[in-house]
């Protein structure tokens, strides 16, 4: 994935404050001095004593809340602003919570057409105080526990995502998700730690970070993520299902991090992490792999001569063709030519190649996202989709005839659409996915629309692989500015796709089991 280097150190979004409603008087605000007390309000000795007792109880409650805030997130003294583990879900955030409702329906056994997903920060709100106050699991190796500084939480609590049937996930049924560290001088370690802090994803999966305990502890100290332990596991067979696990992939006793710097050591460490994770993925010990960003330059070596993760994984798993598929709750975009220089795009936009990508996209929407009858929009190659041949003939000679062929087979494939007008008028909202002809034609609008929660998913692979849709972002590395939402979403997508594939395989197997007809 190409990195969007942020020019704006704002990438860490600040959750909106939920203060008292307009017109409400704060709990501790006295009434106007000019207001006359009613008969019920006139003070009596008994009323004064009762009021003092009530005031004392309120003061004790405020002190308890403040004490909880020091261990599990700062608490607002106004009860209206507090949300704890007994609250019935995330606050109402308007139209985007429609996705949350759809996910609840899907988890209860329904199968809506679109795979909408609620906002990750909404999901994160909730069980902070309980999670912080409970005893934490001790780390296996004492040297892995950095000093505790009493850091308060930054954005949310333990994630409560249950399986689609609504039941709790048994430990033996919990998916094991591998996460490769990427370039440790970029924002990869930061977004991984922020996404997994307080073991808040433990209810839906067992995370295994392929990286370095020493490097991760350095970032925990740097980012004040210290009041939470990691489990050092020598191998995948020794992980804990109660904690976030770390498998150290290279000897790093004398290695130090240099946030924001491009170094050869970081590139080779990223490759070591990826190779170890892929080995376990091949052995069936991982259910999915999430890859943190690498630097495509410093990772190059005799063992890695690829433009990115996708091409490396395709070779490792013997896949001839795959689809770069960018997905979010609002939009899914695939590309025909992927990591191809712009000067060679035209020669790669062939009828056969477009048909291959359409086939992969159609299959992925059914198998990986549970959409029974996908509806796909195909973009044109030229400005204004060729303007009926005035600006290019590819639409008339290649794309339109192919679309007509698919339509004749009963497939819901439409186009070709001019990219600018299609995205400008939000035409994508009427389709399950969009097939763009080349990298920037698809990724520029996707990142403009869904950069925070976008995920790069590799369709057409025998294994599940996702990654956040950003790069190493050296300009903000180590500054506690990186937003982990895309990494969270990449983990959620990996879990969802892995489950959906199993369900799809079960359905296919059951459909093939025919009862013999008695003669």
Automatic annotation (TrEMBL):
Compositional bias annotation for Basic and acidic residues: 1-11, 73-110, 118-139, 150-169
Biased composition (Polar residues): 140-149
SUPFAM superfamilies the UniProt entry points to: Isocitrate/Isopropylmalate dehydrogenase-like (SSF53659)
Cited Pfam families: PdxA (PF04166)
Domain of life (superkingdom): Bacteria
Enzyme Commission numbers on file: 1.1.1.262
Extent of Low complexity compositional bias: 46-59
Record's keyword terms, sorted: Metal-binding, NAD, Oxidoreductase
Region (Disordered): 1-169
Keyword NAD among UniProt keywords: yes
Recorded GO MF terms: 4-hydroxythreonine-4-phosphate dehydrogenase activity; metal ion binding; NAD binding
Name listed for the protein in its UniProt record: 4-hydroxythreonine-4-phosphate dehydrogenase PdxA
Organism, as annotated: Spirosoma endbachense
